DNA sequence: CCCTGATTCGC
DNA sequence: GCGAATCAGG
């Protein structure tokens, strides 16, 4: 595949829209994200200047004044030092509360058996909760089968209803949930204690 | 581990 | 000009 006018145009469009290089590459097909990034640079729009007003104070004193000896090929190649790897220490402890109880559930009585006692909202930080309800609008609303190792597995709604789905947003590394849901699922023990009412 | 963009350099 | 390999960061 070569960079035809239309392909370049699509590239420019998507790039200025904030699409990632990999997304653009997928859309275009026949190219890798590296190719896209390379092209972006050659086109000179690496600064995402597509629509960004940009900060006036763009102090870019980069003289770029490389002495004639530009061919300089330093590459100090620092030695990969060992990683002491801090220490587990104060690791937040997973809270085993049942997620459910989305704001949408309200007072509707589940069609089936009454749900088990739900600790729900009262023990979760308001901030985290707010964050959740906000991103839930953007949720992918996946079905059980659509979940992958990389999609948030946070359930939303009532399983006894049609109004039930899984968040599906990109998960936080290692975790089973997206950032927002990790926020309500995992809490430092202290925070949990303090909230006790 | 997954992803992001940035850079280098042989082709 | 092109883009894989690599780098650097989240």
UniProtKB/TrEMBL annotation:
> Pfam family of this protein, just one?
GcrA
According to UniProt, the name of this protein is: GcrA cell cycle regulator
Q: Which InterPro entries does the record cross-reference, listed alphabetically?
A: GcrA
Location of region: Disordered = 48-127
Pro residues composition bias: which ranges?
A: 75-91
